[in-house]
Amino acid sequence: MIGLLKIAFKLLVNDKGKFAALLIGITFAVFLMVQMTSIFAGILQKASAVVTNIGAKIWIMDPSVTTVANSVPMPDYVQDAVRSIPGVKYAVPLYSGGATLKLQSGVYQSVTVLGLDDTSLLGRPELLEGNIEDIYAENGFIVVKDSEIEKLENPVVGTVFELNDHRGVIVGIAKVTNNGLFGIPSLYTTYNRAIQYIPSARFTSSYILVEPKVESDIATIKQEVANMGYLAITDEEFCNKISNFYKYKTGIGTNILFMTIISFVVGLSISGQTFYTFILENLDKFGALKAIGAKSQELVIMIVFQAAFTALTGYGLGVGLCTLMIFLAKMRLPNYASIVTYTDLGMAFLMVIIIAIFSSYIGVRKVLKIEPFDVFRG
Questions:
Q1: Which residues face 24 on adjacent strands?
Q2: How high is the pLDDT of residue 375?
Q3: Domain boundaries, the chain
Q4: For 269-307, how does the pLDDT look when each residue is reduced to its tens digit (9 = 90+)?
Q5: What is the sign of the dihedral through the CA atoms of 269, 273, 278 and 282?
Q6: CA 269, CA 265: separation in Å to the nearest integer?
């Protein structure tokens, strides 16, 4: 059997043009599939950046909230009621809203402002420069150092700006786990300063962040909050809620799905047609093998080996090419939203297996019908 597989390999790579065409077709299809799904995974990761960066175990919100950016303010009594629920270790408010800064150059720039609980500062970012205590200083703000900080003219500790006729001062430079999706710089300050500087409605709590005493108390907290007419979900559930919104209620998910399907069809058609041509050109060789005693089962294994080798090689090249492109793109475009996940790789691998099965089926049907007599008669 090993000898037949060696013959199958030599038949496959002997015609370099056909072999290259097979590899290019599958590589291109895998590249497009992984690229499209990676972009979508990057978008979903950035869309949940605030949830990931804050790190609270339970988020309480209005039931109509679909994404973290579209918060619905809640009355203050909700926080007091949540604190009285058995199993709640502590509950603090979080302000999340947009504002427009006037920079020192006179340029106006939109930002996202996150107001942390004045007492605990739950969700504070990791500081690269400055001291976290300085956020309590008059007009103190912390800026996130990410790909969007250039839009704020690269502020440093001590940089002054204006927010709704209020003076603001950068007291710290921070980093976060994930950057936001919409290309807007982020600022952190205290909750009371945020609601004081930014005009808002009668209610000001965008979310209430809860820490349960033990994991088993989460179900009780969810039920008690639901009885009040609000929604309590874990950080993982909130990320999934945001992901489902972008998948099913926006055009992003549909467009990515169509592009992935098109990539799959392209790879399937190119590899199937090229492999069929390869089989036709080597029918005499398969017939000769059959004439000297090769069984039909052994010929089938040879064809499956050829299709699988080509598909897996194209899969590796496609994934490598996509990873290289994402790496180079992020070097030049730090806010490029793309990340290769195991789910993307698994989905592409499954589609490549289907391509290999389809190509093998085409070849097997043709080879099993050949008779040695037809070959030698020619």
A1: none
A2: 57
A3: 2-46+251-377, 75-229
A4: 777 777 777 777 777 777 777 777 767 788 788 888 888
A5: positive
A6: 6
Structural element, H or E, at residue 126: strand 126-130
- Residue 129 DSSP symbol: E
* Residue that has been written with the tokens 């994404």 in this structure: 67
CA 306-309-315 angle, to 5 degrees, is: 140
Location of structure tokens 């992984």: 34
Round to whole Å and give the CA distance between 344 and 37: 6
Please choose, from the candidates 173, 186, 191, the residue with its C-alpha nearest in 3D space to the C-alpha of residue 68: 186
CA angle 24, 29, 34 (to 5 degrees): 125
The Cβ-side half-sphere exposure at 196, using a 13 Å CA radius, reads 12
The answer to which of 119-123, 178-182, 209-213 has the lowest mean pLDDT is 178-182
Written as six digits, the tokens of 68 are: 């973290």
| Residue 347 half-sphere exposure toward CB, CA atoms < 13 A | 20
Nearest to 73 by CA among 198, 174, 182, 173: 198
Who's near 129: CB < 8 A, 6+ residues apart? 156, 157, 172, 173
The confidence band for 374, taking pLDDT boundaries of 50, 70 and 90, is low
Query: What would the pLDDT profile of 222-240 be if each residue is shown by its tens digit?
Result: 999 999 999 999 999 999 9
Amino acid 185 reads P
Share of the chain above pLDDT 70, in %: 97
Helix (H, G, I), strand (E, B) or coil at 305: helix
pLDDT in tens, 318-346: 999 999 998 888 888 777 778 888 888 88
